């Protein structure tokens, strides 16, 4: 018998959204935090031109992309890495800095991929309780163990949508040992940039990484381009475990063109925020518990798991797919990506009807 290594055999496959609408129903996916609109129209020509170089390996140093990122965010180019999505960078961090003799720590209701990469690295995965649906720097510091090597915090958080302040992140960093690497995952950072609390300056300390992605605000989820600012000595180690040709020629061209259309990205964030806040208010006024979100999605909290499952079933029967959140320790919650207005209207109408029928 051909056997996998034991820690892989013990793992479950990473749970992606299950999108199987009833026969004849149009699929409405509000389940993967994709952008509400396609990427900037500027990328079409850039991708077509890049496709002509499809017989060549991509630039392994993402030179043009890093230069533009450095310029846009006022960052040093040294220490910038691009990933095949930020997932590749998250996985690389665990592979290079955690292991069987180390623990990875994250908030209890964090992005489930942090757990997956800890398992892949054969590291123990510890969690710290969140308070009022928000990451608590006090709880994280209290959960630190002598072998905690890596701490992941998504800010804003997925699936909570909430964020912690720069002040609290600074307190967290100050409270961690200097041999513990703090990773601040800002996959939804562009949706909160108006708060003007950038964290990139922490990277210069040598013990902190800040990650971003073009999958969300730039609408490039299908192209798979993430990036991060790493202390140079950390970046050297991560590169050893990454695919050396990780971002395709079309991915790099699309990302550069998208970065060159900042107006479009800001417009996407504004449209998303306007719809998000409008539907949050609408759901709240219908009696749903919806925390303030700083992202492109809303979390809907139900009384318990069976109530959430009932609402999810009513939505699925109409072809509408939100994302159940048991994987993030929130089995009483559904997460709704901010999509097209008509799809959100449909979701709200189905939830209204369901609530009239089933909510006490
Ligand atoms: C918090 C967080 N980090 C990282 C990612 C991964 O994004 P990417 O598409 O860049 O791999 C996601 C995707 O949903 C996310 O929610």
From TrEMBL:
The keyword Transferase applies. It catalyses: L-histidinol phosphate + 2-oxoglutarate = 3-(imidazol-4-yl)-2-oxopropyl phosphate + L-glutamate. Its cofactor is pyridoxal 5'-phosphate. CDD domains: AAT_like (cd00609). Belongs to the class-II pyridoxal-phosphate-dependent aminotransferase family. Histidinol-phosphate aminotransferase subfamily. InterPro entries: Aminotrans_II_pyridoxalP_BS (IPR001917), Aminotransferase_I/II_large (IPR004839), HisP_aminotrans (IPR005861), HistidinolP_aminotransfase (IPR050106), PyrdxlP-dep_Trfase (IPR015424), PyrdxlP-dep_Trfase_major (IPR015421), PyrdxlP-dep_Trfase_small (IPR015422). Its EC number is 2.6.1.9. It comes from the Bacteria. The modification N6-(pyridoxal phosphate)lysine is found at residue 216. The lineage of its organism: Bacteria, Pseudomonadati, Pseudomonadota, Alphaproteobacteria, Rhodobacterales. The keyword Iron-sulfur does not apply. Keywords: Amino-acid biosynthesis, Aminotransferase, Histidine biosynthesis, Pyridoxal phosphate, Transferase. Pathway: Amino-acid biosynthesis; L-histidine biosynthesis; L-histidine from 5-phospho-alpha-D-ribose 1-diphosphate: step 7/9. This is Histidinol-phosphate aminotransferase. GO terms for biological process: L-histidine biosynthetic process. One of its GO terms (molecular function) is pyridoxal phosphate binding. Homodimer. PANTHER family: HISTIDINOL-PHOSPHATE AMINOTRANSFERASE, HISTIDINOL-PHOSPHATE AMINOTRANSFERASE 2. Coiled coil: none annotated. Residues 27-347 form the Aminotransferase class I/classII large domain.
């Amino acid at each position: 018998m051909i056997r996998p290594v034991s820690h892989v055999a013990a793992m479950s496959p990473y749970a992606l959204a299950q999108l199987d609408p009833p026969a004849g129903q149009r699929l409405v996916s509000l389940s993967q935090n994709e952008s509400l609109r396609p990427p900037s129209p500027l990328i079409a020509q850039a991708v077509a031109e890049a496709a002509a170089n499809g017989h060549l390996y991509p630039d392994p140093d993402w030179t043009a992309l890093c230069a533009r990122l450095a310029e846009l965010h006022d960052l040093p180019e040294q220490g910038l890495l691009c990933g095949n999505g930020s997932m590749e960078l998250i996985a690389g961090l665990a592979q290079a800095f955690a292991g069987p003799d180390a623990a990875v720590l994250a908030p209890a209701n964090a992005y489930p991929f942090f757990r997956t990469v800890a398992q892949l690295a054969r590291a123990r995965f510890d969690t710290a309780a969140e308070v009022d649906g928000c990451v608590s720097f006090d709880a994280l510091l209290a959960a630190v163990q002598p072998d905690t090597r890596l701490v992941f915090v998504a800010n804003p958080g997925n699936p909570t949508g909430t964020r912690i302040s720069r002040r609290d992140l600074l307190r967290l960093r100050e409270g961690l040992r200097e041999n513990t690497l703090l990773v601040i995952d800002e996959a939804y950072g562009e949706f909160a940039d108006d708060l003007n609390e950038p964290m990139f300056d922490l990277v210069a300390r040598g013990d902190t990484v800040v990650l971003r992605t073009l999958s969300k605000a730039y609408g490039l989820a299908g192209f798979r381009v993430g990036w991060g600012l790493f202390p140079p000595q950390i970046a050297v180690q991560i590169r050893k475990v990454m695919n050396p040709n990780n971002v395709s020629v079309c991915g790099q061209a699309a990302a550069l063109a998208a970065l060159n259309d900042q107006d479009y990205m800001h417009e996407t964030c504004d449209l998303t925020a306007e719809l998000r806040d409008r539907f949050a208010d609408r759901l709240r006024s219908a009696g749903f518990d919806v925390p303030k979100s700083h992202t492109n999605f809303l979390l809907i909290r139900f009384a318990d798991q069976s109530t959430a499952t009932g609402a999810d079933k009513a939505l699925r029967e109409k072809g509408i797919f939100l994302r159940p959140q048991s994987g993030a320790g929130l089995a009483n919650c559904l997460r709704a990506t901010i999509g097209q207005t008509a799809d959100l209207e449909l979701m709200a109408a189905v939830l209204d009807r369901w609530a009239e029928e089933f909510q006490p």
